Amino acid sequence: MMKPLKIIYSALLLAAAPMLSQTATTVPTQSNSATAQVKNNIVTAHERDGQQVFDQNCSRCHNTPQGFSPRIAGTVARHMRVRANLSKEDEQAILRFLNP
Amino acid sequence: MQCFSNSKYVKPLRRIGTALSVFWISFFVGPLIAQTTPLISGGAGFLTSTTAGATTYQPIAVPVLEAPIGQHLLIESRGNLVETVSPSGGGQGGYNHSLFLSLAYLQADYIATPHLTVVGGYFLTPFGTYNERLTPIWIGNLDAPLIFSIGTMVSGAGTGGMLRGNAFSSDKISLSYAAYFSAGSTNKEFTSTRSAGGQMYAYFPEKRLEVGASYGRLLDGKQTNSVGGHVWWEPAKVPLKVRSEYAHGAHSQGYWVETDYRLSQIHGAESFFGRLEPIFRIQQTFRESAPDRTDFLPSANTQRTDFQLAYHLPHEVRVNATYARQFSSTGNFNIWETSVVYRFLFPAWKGK
Fold it and tell me: Residue A18 domain-assigned?
């Protein structure tokens, strides 16, 4: 009985390894516009412009956050997708914008 | 061959296979997974409120925990921790203390398709805008509006399930919906009533305009309906927010309109004046039934105006000073409030 559990725990530990090796830097979310602009020139037509999605949505309900660790960018984008009923494309654009 | 078809061996082998694939997948999509570290967020603050001469003090902490699981699931929860210190009253000196711990919500969100998220658990009632959007202390500037309990089913939360999502989205318009059913609960942690309802709204991103409608039905003995509407406008060129809501319930109807103007046009948002944000709100309620203490609505027609000066300090700290005056046939009074609020946001565990 213990074996499968051990295997699952090891799998989880192994899965966590790449996460722990990420460097945590604070993202100044609003100062990424230049990078986002460069990226936007090469994104395909159906992708939403991250800067625009950010400007049009992220200060609707609250002040835009001053910055946060890139390790939680996906968690924030997923949460805001649910809370603000954002489209899937908007969530993806926000994620690209927060972590260019 | 035979021994491999024996389930005794196949099961552990499959598990090893799964474990290895999880490892390899996580290795290759590492950066993606690494963005979904669970987080702790929320607000902490100190509030004072002087209503008709009596002052209460409230140290308060409102933590939010969010844990994504896999590609589609998010578990999220918010708790309230409030200590209230108020004068004993009745001619006695001294103060009373009370500690209040409560759960605002605890829910699982499953993003099933690009247009549908299935929510289960104890969730904030989707009616109007205040409950889902402005209740966090680091977001909402002013006290809950007088019509707050209309449509939010008094406790502001439901126990059951909700379907929500973005129905349609283009550069010009985004249509959203939410529909819920709450079985109700008398459990102290999950207080809620048996009810159902939902809302729809359209957001016009270029105009920064949102228009929406909400509906709620109490399904206990009384079977009453609530309807509401909201309009939010936050023009792109001016740091102005205009927010308004109307609600009609079995006992009362009313509205509120709020304008926030951040003075960031004077030397930028980080300048001495640019950090200031005056906020003004007017609200009215009209009583349509006999007074009822359980509906948490004013017992007579009431008007209230709030004026607040918010000052945004660096490092996510905000200082607020508010003056409000309430008028009603049951008495007029002043409310003075001050608060310091700190907003926090960090990964739930340390990374390198």
Answer: no
pTM exceeds 0.90 for this model: no
Domain presence at residue A5: no
Mutate to test the interface with A, among B7, B15, B33, B35 (most CBs of A within 10 A): B35
By Cβ distance, the residue of A69, A75, A89 closest to B68 is A75
**What is the rounded distance in angstroms from the CA atom of residue B277 to the CA atom of residue B64?**
26
Short-list A27, A98, A59, CA closest to B139: A59
| pLDDT at site B352 | 57
Report the residue of A69, A82, A90, A95 to disrupt the B interface, i.e. the one with the largest count of B CBs within 10 Å. Answer: A82
Looking at per-residue pLDDT, the higher value among B72 and B30 belongs to B72
Instruction: Specify the range with the lowest mean pLDDT, choosing from A44-53, A71-80, B201-210.
Output: A44-53
- DSSP per-residue letters across B302-319: EEEEEEEEEEEETTTEEE
Question: How far lies B195's CA from each of A44, B162, B188, in Å?
Answer: 45, 12, 18
Q: Is residue A13 part of a domain?
A: no
Q: Which domain holds residue A88?
A: 35-62+70-100
Is B139's CB within 8 Å of A62's CB?
A: yes
Residue A86 in any domain: the answer is yes
What is the band of B52 on the pLDDT scale with cuts at 50, 70, 90? confident
Q: Which residues make Cβ contacts (< 8 Å) with residue A7, sequence separation at least 6?
A: B12, B15, B16, B19
Write the pLDDT tens digit of every residue in A25-74. 333 334 333 333 333 334 444 567 889 999 999 999 999 877 888 999 99
pLDDT over 60 at B259, yes or no: yes
Distance from CA of A14 to the nearest CA of B (A): 6
Q: Is the pLDDT of residue B31 over 80?
A: no
CATH number of B99-347: 2.40.160.10
Distance CA B225, CA B259 (A): 29
- B32 CB neighbours in chain A (<8 A) are 74
Distance, in angstroms, between B39 CA and closest chain A CA? 7
Total domains, chain A:
1
Q: What is the mean pLDDT of chain A?
A: 66
Which residues, other chains included, contact A25 with Cβ-Cβ below 8 Å and sequence gap of 6+?
Answer: A69, A70
**What's residue A49's pLDDT?**
87
Q: Which residues of A touch B320 (CB under 8 A)?
A: none
